[in-house]
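Q: Got a minute? One more chain.
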Amino acid sequence: MQVLKASEFEDGKVTALFYGPPGIGKTTAVGMLPGKTLIIDVDKGTSVLRGNKNVDVVRLSEDLKDLPAVLKELGAKCPYDNICIDSLSELERGMLAYFGRVGNNDGVPGLQDYGRVNYKLVDYCRQYRALDANVIFTAWEDRREIIAPTGEKYTQICPLLRDKVVDNVCGLCDMVGRVAVTKEGERVILLEGSQGLVAKDRLGKRKILKFGEAV
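A: Always. Here it is, folded:
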């Protein structure tokens, strides 16, 4: 058994999840991160980064079969400071659509396909998290109804992923933030969680991350 001293831990790579409604600036925020960034473009939203010399883009095929190939290549040699999958919400839906097309249910995913996607999506997140780079996932925004042990009901803003996946993915991340616009019109990433908002920064303990700041 290897015992490590927490007092000797050095700053390492960060795994983050940025979420928000379409068009709020998630991809723009990733493009403004310090260093060289690779965006694995699932929902084809990287056109907003046209002219950004610090960003490279991989656009996946419709069957998504090149996703593990990208992972294998980056595992062998990773020349980037930041790796982003943009977005997990569309990746989840794309995987379900693919399994529906190749299945025998008139294009509709079967129950076994939902279980397969639940497993494979979380497993991809784990494998990408192990790369020698900051790893950033993006997702769209959802609202879910929560019933507390006391019976109280409340609405919680969270990333748009299936219920069996969202908590698992958030648990894998050091940072979970909602992209929002302040009253002054500034776009920021909210990192302070509450009963009604899924967010955290377990490394820096920050409440807000401004666009262009390091994760």
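A: The chain has one domain: 13-210.
Q: Perfect, thanks.
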